[in-house]
Design goal:
The complex is a heterodimer of chains A (about 110) and B (about 110).
Chain A lengths: L3 E3 L3 E4 L5 E7 L5 E8 L3 E8 L6 E2 L7 E6 L2 E6 L8 E8 L8 E2 L3 E5 L1
Parallel strand pairs in A: 2-11
Antiparallel strand pairs in A: 1-3, 3-8, 4-5, 4-9, 5-6, 7-8, 9-10, 9-11
Chain B lengths: L4 E3 L2 E4 L5 E6 L6 E7 L6 E6 L5 E4 L2 E5 L5 E6 L8 E8 L7 E2 L3 E5 L2
Parallel strand pairs in B: 2-11
Antiparallel strand pairs in B: 1-3, 3-8, 4-5, 4-9, 6-7, 7-8, 9-10, 9-11
The chains are: A mainly beta (about 110), B mainly beta (about 110).
């Protein structure tokens, strides 16, 4: 079974703080993704990575950056957290090639006060 | 970004009823995926479809890849209380590895 883990289930941060969300997958997948999920807005892609040190912007990259130094780990960074970044953050991984299935972690509920 | 048209938005069902939901797209897809999300958890992959016309089952769930490649259907037979949650469809066309997501169908059991 694919296992995707996220560093925290719940996180509370103050406005202006730098926030790191970490994601680790154990299936040697090429691709990793970061989404945010808000009520009524569905899943929106922030960034994804198709290889170590490679990244591509998704639909809503503003205010976020990412890092993929190792194949199994993909980090999402909020350089200066703002209240409008309060959300559920979901990490996913996928095998790549012609396989488009994505496997999700349990999510991190981030609250910025 | 682009979204799929997923319907219905929500459904109230009696235990034991069959359930149907669908997703439509304005463009052709080569992959359709169906996920279920429980409250406070990440989505879990239920069924993956890779071929137009394909019909695939996973227990009481059956999904179909529409012949036009612009739609997909998910059916749940004889629903049980643990079926409640939000069901998402996702499709892949000819872009990079991004999936296009539906807004979800929320399944609620009638008391």
């Amino acid at each position: 079974d694919v296992k995707v883990t996220q560093s925290s289930r719940y996180l509370v941060k103050r406005t202006g703080e730098k926030v790191f969300l970490e994601c680790v997958q154990d299936m040697d997948h090429e691709n990793m993704f970061w989404y945010r999920q808000d009520p009524g807005l569905g899943l929106r892609l922030i960034y994804f990575s198709y290889d170590v040190k490679m990244k591509e912007k998704g639909d809503i990259p503003e205010g976020y950056s990412v890092s993929r130094e190792k194949k199994e780990r993909f980090s999402l960074i909020l350089e200066s957290a703002s209240t409008n970044q309060t959300s559920m953050y979901l990490c996913a991984s996928g095998a790549g090639g012609i396989i488009y299935e994505q496997y999700f972690g349990p999510g991190t509920r981030l609250t910025v006060t | 970004g682009q979204q799929l048209n997923q319907s219905p938005q929500s459904m109230f069902i009696q235990e034991g009823e069959d359930v149907s939901m669908n997703c439509t797209s304005s463009s052709i897809f080569n992959t359709w995926l169906w996920y279920k999300q429980d409250p406070g958890e990440g989505p879990v992959l239920l069924i993956a479809l890779y071929k137009a016309g394909e019909l695939t089952s996973n227990g009481r769930l059956t999904a179909q890849f529409g012949i036009t490649r612009k739609d997909s259907f998910l059916n749940i037979s004889a629903s049980i209380p643990s079926d409640v949650g939000i069901y998402f469809c996702a499709g892949h066309g000819d872009s990079n590895y991004q999936l296009i997501w539906g807004a979800g169908t929320k399944l609620i059991i009638k008391p």
